[in-house]
Design a protein that fits this description.
The protein is an alpha+beta fold. The protein has a single domain, classed as 60s Ribosomal Protein L30, Chain: A (2-Layer Sandwich). It contains 5 helices and 7 strands; from the N terminus they run ββββαααβαβαβ. The strands form 2 sheets. The protein has a 5-stranded mixed β-sheet with strand order 4-1-7-5-6. Helix 1 runs parallel beside helix 3. The longest helix is centred in the middle third of the chain and has 14 residues, at about 75-90. The chain binds zinc ion (ZN). Zinc ion binds near residues 10, 12, 35, 41 and 44.
């Protein structure tokens, strides 16, 4: 059975005032992420991991950030469309493994809800999704709270 691995990475800078949109959910927080769409750093990294594993154009090519229809766009919507393209190319998902790099907020209270949201978007089971939060140990741009980043690997199989 052919297998493919895909890697996605994304960075967004923080801006004053919440809420924070992360992993498809809204989190009470005193900052938000800045971007053309809703700037959901985790969903963007997942989208790129899936597209990349299938050898398809990346999120920036599919949803250009200079296009009016992508302004403030729900990243869940972009993920669903990208996943449909990956499926059309004959790929199923074995699992996703996700890392969120954020000094704040504490992610553990939100992990179950984020995993469920991603599972709903991709029509998979939450146990196919690994999710870890890591701080920046108070150093660097992540530790100072200037950016949030996400790294995701996706394993695809062609049944
Ligand atoms: Zn992004």
């Amino acid at each position: 059975m052919p297998l493919r691995i895909g890697l996605g990475h994304d960075t967004h800078r923080t801006g004053a005032g919440g809420p924070l949109i992360l992993g498809g959910i809204s989190i009470d927080c005193d900052f938000h992420l800045v971007g053309h769409s809703d700037a959901d750093v985790l969903l963007h990294a997942i989208t790129d991991a899936l597209l990349s594993g299938a050898g398809l154009p990346d999120i920036g090519e599919l949803f250009p950030d200079n296009a009016a229809e992508n302004r403030g766009r729900d990243s869940g919507d972009m993920l669903r469309l990208a996943w449909a393209k990956v499926r059309e190319n004959g790929w199923d998902l074995v699992n996703l493994d996700c890392v969120i790099l954020a000094q704040r907020p504490k992610l553990s209270p939100h992990k179950a809800q984020i995993r469920q949201r991603i599972a709903d978007l991709l029509q998979i089971s939450p146990d196919q999704i690994g999710l870890k939060g890591k701080t920046g140990e108070s150093v660097g741009e992540i530790g100072r709270g200037e950016t949030l980043q996400s790294i995701v690997v996706a394993l695809l199989e062609r049944p």
